[in-house]
Sequence to fold (257 residues):
Amino acid sequence: MAPDISSSSNERIRRLIRLRERRHRDAEGVFLVEGDRLYRRAIASGLVPEVTFVHDPGRDTVGTRVTVTPEVLDRASYRARSEGLIAVFPQLDLRLDGLGTNAPPLTLVTEAIEKPGNLGAMMRTAAASGAGSMICVGRTADPHNPNAVRASTGSLFDMPLAVTDWPGAAAWLHEREIEIVGASPDGTESLWVADLTGPIAIVIGSEDRGLSDEARSRCSRTLAIPQLPSSADSLNASVAAGVILFEAMRQRSHPSR
Fold:
């Protein structure tokens, strides 16, 4: 049986190529998921694709399916190879209204994270460490960016996530009596002695500038991760988030600390 699409000039393929860009994703309210592993996790999370493009007609998919030649599907991929599947999903609801909290609340707040891969890795870390929600503030990378989706390894589909500004985030946190705690190389409190067992939101600043003045003004305290002397002035943002979130998890699992 001949595939439904065999030309990269097909309008549906041209649309997939356009959807690599944020402005087109936002205009249509959709995002892309590539590869069977992420696709299965999206489906398991209750998401329903608008359409799924595959080159194997026997592949198990949900809803509308379009078969495409391997070469054309590779052309539509944001990577060198398509892994044989590209699906279009409705964008997730990223409003604060959709967030919940765990008990005791542990939230990750990211400020102006510009690299989609870092943002996705932080989603994955937040989910693995037991954070109940994640809030992105400032000029942030798009959580629906293909690199963020991939780096999240599917955590994007399950992690309660919101994109907002500082006034909105601070109001949401204060209403729930969640302490705002910043992470900075010049923090006033060492992570090794900090108490992270209460309701807290950990703020990780941008990769190159760290916490903004506004972020610092919102924080009740700042934490420093102890480091050996080296040429590096700070840790990668996603690594710093992981160190602090897993220390919070350790403390909460062992109250005696």
